[in-house]
Amino acid sequence: MIKEIVTDAEALSAPAQPATIDDVSVAIDLLDTMASLENAASLAANQIGSDKAVIAYLDEQDSPHVMMNPKILRALGPYKAEESCFSHEAISKVTRFARIEVSYDEVPEALLHPADEAAPADAQLVRRKKRLEGWEAELVQHGIDHCKGKLV
Ligand SMILES: [Zn+2]
Q: Name one Pfam family in it (predicted).
């Protein structure tokens, strides 16, 4: 379901709560909302009014990805970036890392597209690790900041 973007700084400053398999609807709402916005390459759950640690982003091929409970394990190559955000207008200067390793919980694909496939009743989140660099790494770092209640 497409949600309205939250711009209230107080709501965006609260750290997110751990997400579970019961929060798959938040992931679907994030993907729907991100797809509805022009130029949206990443969104975090608190930007659509959920307090769960869920982020979505588009990779360089414009394919959407969802991460629950993302956490940066390693970060290399700091640089200064200027970022904008759907929740506030000003451009912010932040330090980002060119290469990161992230751990996160993956939502089984069948649960993200319930209309296409019957989801197994015992579906579980899968803990994964991923190395990212460049643009995707920056989007994920921005999203993880949102989960911490940090606005760039
Ligand atoms: Zn943002």
A: Pep_deformylase
Interval between CA 146 and ligand 1 midpoint (Å): 6
DSSP per residue, 66-79: EEEEEEEEEEEEEE
Instruction: Say how many Å lie between the CA of residue 122 and the centre of ligand 1.
Output: 33
Residue range 115-130, pLDDT digits in tens: 766 777 788 999 999 9
* 43 alpha carbon – ligand 1 mean position (Å): 6
Q: Is the pTM of this model over 0.85?
A: yes
Q: Which amino acid is at 143?
A: G
Domains along the chain with CATH numbers: 9-147 (3.90.45.10)
Token readout for 80 is: 């200064």
How would residue 151 be classed by pLDDT, with cut points 50, 70 and 90? confident
